[in-house]
Amino acid sequence: EPQTCDWRKVGTISPVRDQRNCNCCWAMAAAGNIEALWAIKFRHFVEVSVQQLLDCDRCGNGCRGGFVWDAFLTVLNNSGLASEKDYPFNGSGKTHRCLAKKYKKVAWIQDFIILQACEQSMARHLATEGPITVTINMTLLQQYQKGVIKATPTTCDPTQVDHSVLLVGFGKTKLVEGRQGKAASFGSHARPRRSMAYWILKNSWGPQWGEEGYFRLHRGSNTCGITKFPVTARVDKPKKQHQVSCPP
Amino acid sequence: DSLRGQDPGPQPLELKEVFRLFQMQYNRSYPNPAEYARRLDIFAQNLAKAQRLQEEDLGTAEFGVTQFSDLTEEEFVQLYGSQVAGEALGVSRKVGSEEWGES
Fold first, then answer.
1. Of B56, B59, B101, the CB nearest to A196
2. ipTM, 2 decimals?
3. Strands A148-149 vs A214-218: parallel, antiparallel or unpaired
4. To the nearest whole angstrom, how far is the Cα of A247 from the nearest Cα of chain B?
5. DSSP per-residue string spanning A105-131
6. Cα–Cα distance measured from residue A163 to residue A204, given in angstroms and rounded to the nearest whole number
7. A81: contact with B, CB 8 A cutoff
8. Looking at chain A, which terminus has fewer C-beta neighbours within 10 angstroms, N or C?
9. At what angle do helices B33-56 and B12-26 cross, to 10 degrees?
10. B28, A119 in Cβ contact below 8 A?
């Protein structure tokens, strides 16, 4: 597992989307996951249709919320996704108005997996396979501007997760002690004394929010419940694994 | 701007000025004076909350005015969360999840 990882640096992460007044972070996180995996595995850069995920979702909730795994089931049921260009996002969920059959599919998945609820194995998967969707408690994000959020279970309950985003990298930032004895970023021109590990997450509130549409959470303390539902699609065929045989 | 290192909260007239800048930046308008007053009050509460989050945060995060600063917390989660109306993602994975492994 490398010290740092940032899939944005090789152009495999599609532009930050803006869900506007539609509760579709789950569909945008799933779409971002599929787009990134196609770019990494096949060098095929495509933006897929979030609107198809909303319209064709089996739960029929449209813009009123949903789950990332249901988005992946929709992709499997539809045998793939149309492009964003053909089937554009319009911010409203006309449920049961699925137009999937009308358009050519530009991306599809083999299956999807829920990873172990462990930040180390998530980091390993992120670095060796690609981005992962996660679902976190969003309460601190309303007032967030920039920097690494390091919360406690009291300030951000890790069991109450309600917002799906895409994990696209991780890293470490050098720290110096700030005036109040709290952590501060390296910019204070004083001798660095500690570092803080963080996750890089892609949000769906437009590029003007946070750090150009992204935000960072402390890595190693399950901040805001980031380990609760790490889910990712798989786009390449499973590699042939050596056969094992059960002892008689 | 972020609240890290600023004076504790603006004065009323200043608050209105900060709110006016917020409205300009995020293109906000309100249908009547009562709604304006209500949103101004929510804005002030969110500024105070941002200050508290700043003090509580153990990392390098900076909290302050965002495009959601005139929403209550309930409105914010309802509009931008992924919870299906009436359902919560409180599904527990604890039962036997360790045996699941990769897929």
1. B59
2. 0.86
3. parallel
4. 20
5. --B--SEEEEPPS-HHHHHHHHHHT--
6. 10
7. no
8. C
9. 100
10. no
Q: Which residue among A23, A113, A138 places its CB closest to the CB of B103? A: A113
A10: tokens are: 């090789």
Instruction: Judge residue B101's burial from the number of C-beta atoms within 10 Å of its C-beta, 0-12 exposed, 13-18 middle, 19 or more buried.
Output: exposed
Residues 178-237 of A with CB under 8 A from B: 179, 182-185, 196, 198, 205-206, 208-209, 216, 218, 228-229, 234
Structural tokens at position A109: 């998945």
Q: Which of A145, A152, A223 to mutate to test the interface with B (most CBs of B within 10 A)?
A: A145
Please tell me whether residue B54 adopts helix, strand or coil conformation: helix
To 5 degrees, how large is the angle CA A227–CA A228–CA A234? Answer: 80
The shortest C-alpha distance from A104 to chain B (Å) reads 28
Q: What is the DSSP letter of B1?
A: -
Residue A73, amino acid = L
Are residues A158 and A139 in contact, defined by beta-carbon separation less than 8 angstroms? no
Amino acid, res. A245:
S
Catalytic residue chosen out of the listed positions A56, A163, A222, A224: A163
pLDDT tens, residue order, chain A (248 aa): 788 999 999 999 999 999 998 999 999 999 999 999 999 999 999 999 999 999 998 877 778 888 999 999 999 999 999 999 999 999 876 666 899 999 999 999 999 999 999 999 999 999 999 999 999 999 999 999 999 999 999 999 999 999 999 999 999 988 765 544 455 544 444 444 478 999 999 999 999 999 999 999 999 999 999 999 999 999 988 777 666 677 76
Q: Are A193 and A183 in contact (CB under 8 A)?
A: no
A163 classed as catalytic: yes
Query: Which of A113, A142, A161 to mutate to probe the B interface, most B CBs <10 Å?
Result: A142
